[in-house]
Amino acid sequence: MTEAATARRSRITPEREAELYGAVLDLLREVGYDALTMDAVAARTRSSKATLYRQWGGKPELVAKAIRHNKPGSISDIDTGTLRGDLHALTAREDDCTMQQNAALMRGLFMAVHGNPDLLAAFKELLVEPEMEEFHCVVQRAVDRGEVRADCPALDYVVHMVVGAFATRTLIDDQPPTQAFLTSYIDAVVLPALGAPTD
Fold first, then answer.
1. In this predicted model, what pLDDT tens digit does every residue of 160-173 receive, in sequence order?
2. What is the DSSP string of 53-66?
3. Which residues, including other chains, have CB under 8 Å from residue 195's CB and lie 6 or more apart?
4. pLDDT for res 8
5. pLDDT value, residue 180
6. Cys staple from 134: which of 75, 103, 162, 180, with CB 3.0 to 4.6 Å?
């Protein structure tokens, strides 16, 4: 058998990959990152541990890719014609129930990241940097349209503002993030900071 044929045979189908990522997220919600093992993922998905390591290298990469896969499409694909419309559309991609589940999952992972440099590196490479780049495209379009000044000092902090609101909603208000909360936050805080239209 040729090397190419072997590679084709060992490649995981998109359906199987989605199934594996779903199982990883379920396990993360059940036991947390530290207690999640490749053995548990292999057992839950009826796959071999060797296959998991061959495809993903290890737990940090598998977890980061599972979370990335769970995201509803590319941020940079959203283009409503206004920054406000784009930010509201980003918020509307997940319903309140999904947002609440993801917020709880991310809180647990934020704690794990602090004690695990490999997880931090995987998160930066596979989640943070790609999403920052996509988000930059959305904001740059607003600059190009003239909605936001190119020298606006708040441009460097848009992601911090949005992620901060999502991450601290439970901590400060003891309530989960919701679409209503995030859209009102965008209108009251993010857009005014950027000098962008709020209607």
1. 998 889 888 888 99
2. HHHHSSHHHHHHHH
3. 148, 149, 152, 154
4. 34
5. 95
6. 75
Answer yes or no: are the C-beta atoms of 71 and 126 closer than 8 Å: no
Q: pTM value?
A: 0.79
Token pair 């943070």 in the structure block, residue: 128
State whether residue 146 is helix, strand or coil. Answer: coil
The residue among 79, 85, 91 whose CA lies nearest residue 180 is 91
C-alpha dihedral (100, 104, 105, 107), degrees to nearest 10: 130
Q: Please enumerate in sequence order all residues whose Cβ is within 8 A of that of 189, keeping only pairs 6 or more positions apart, or say none.
A: 161, 165
Residue 35: other Cβ atoms inside 10 A: 10
Of 56, 55, 57, 25, give the one whose Cα is nearest residue 40. 25
Consecutive sets of 10 residues in the chain, 199 residues long: mean pLDDT of each?
40 88 91 91 92 92 90 83 95 89 81 88 89 90 96 94 88 90 96 94
In 31-166 the beta strands, taken as DSSP E runs, fall at none
DSSP assignment letter at 27: H
Asked if residue 70 lies in contact with residue 21, where contact means CB atoms within 8 angstroms, the answer is: yes
pLDDT of 142 reads 96
